[in-house]
Design brief:
The structure is a single chain. With 228 residues, the protein is of the alpha/beta class. The protein has one domain: Rossmann fold (3-Layer(aba) Sandwich), CATH 3.40.50.850. It is 43% helix and 16% strand. The protein is built from 8 helices and 6 strands. The protein has a 6-stranded parallel sheet.
Length: 228
């Protein structure tokens, strides 16, 4: 892992893991946004697809196993239109770019929640008590009840993983920091379309908002805290 700047937060329990948008439509070039990007620029998704296979999926599964064993809350987010037609998307830039794609190609990349491509990818070990939050924004807090649920559970530390590092992961981590949570961003459990995007985002997050950590470090910290 690159030696990113990082705020030396402690991992206090209860701690919650938020896994952002690991869905076929976002990481598989056969579906949704990933398909549109790959169709428009062949090869564009190659880095992310390979990083998902070799790094992100194993790292997220290691985190899930540790959080489940420690009985700590886990949340998955799924970007999808609850209304079905994309009219409920909150983020203006997504609405604009989707409208441009719709006009150009006749198809929307904002999928209805009924589409299986908006489910969590099958290679992740989702637990029976994990919550799946459907969102229509980059920031996971903006269009879900995540803030209220974390407060109800008296969560003291938030850990963020998923895609894309420089978009929904960064947006969610920033809001969590502003809400008062010590935030960990798990570097090897995140990905962006380009490694330069990923690195630049983590440089900024580690400088101002979060502790940048590897999944192995987080698992060790969690085990020690849960066993104390």
């Amino acid at each position: 892992m690159i030696n990113f700047p990082s705020i030396d937060f402690d991992l206090e329990l209860p701690a919650a893991l938020v896994v952002i948008d690991l869905q076929p439509c976002g990481v598989d070039p056969r579906h949704g946004l990933a398909k549109a990007l790959e169709t428009g620029a062949p090869g564009y998704t190659r880095h992310l697809v390979e990083r998902m296979r070799t790094t992100v999926t194993p790292a997220v599964n290691a985190l899930l196993a540790a959080f489940h064993a420690a009985r700590q809350p886990v949340y998955f987010t799924a970007f999808a239109s609850a209304a079905g037609d994309g009219s409920d998307v909150r983020t203006a830039s997504i609405r604009k770019r989707n409208a441009e794609r719709l006009a150009r190609t006749g198809s929307s990349v904002v999928l209805p929640r009924s589409d299986p491509a908006t489910d969590i990818i099958a290679t992740l070990d989702v637990g029976p008590d994990d919550r799946i939050l459907v969102k229509q924004s980059m920031d996971a807090f903006a269009t879900t009840d995540l803030a209220q649920d974390l407060q109800r559970r008296a969560v003291r530390t938030l850990l963020v993983a998923g895609v894309y590092t420089d978009a929904c992961v960064e947006s969610t981590a920033r809001t969590a920091a502003e809400l008062g949570y010590p935030v960990f961003v798990v570097e090897d459990a995140c990905a962006a379309w380009d490694p330069a995007f990923h690195d630049a985002s983590l440089q900024n997050l580690g400088r101002y908002f979060a502790r940048i950590a590897g999944s192995g470090e987080v698992v060790d910290l969690l085990r020690r805290r849960a066993g104390a």
